[in-house]
Amino acid sequence: MLDSFNRTIDYLRISITDRCNLRCMYCMPRGILPLSHGEILSYEEILRIVRIMAPLGIRNVKITGGEPLVRRGAVELIGKVKRTAGIEKVTITSNGVLLLHYLDDILRAGVDGINLSLDTLDGETFGRITGAGTDGPAAGRAFFSNIRSFLDRAGNLPVPVKINCVPIRGVNSGELAVIAGLAKNSGVFVRFIELMPLGCAAAFEGVPGREIAALLETVYGPLEPCREKPGNGPASYYSIKGFAGKIGFISPLSHNFCGSCNRLRLGSAGLLRPCLAYNTGLDLRALLRNGETDEGIARAITALVAEKGQGHDFFGVPYSPAECTEMFRIGG
Ligand code: SAM
Ligand code: SF4
Question: Which domains does the chain have, with CATH numbers?
Answer without folding.
Answer: 11-329 (3.20.20.70)
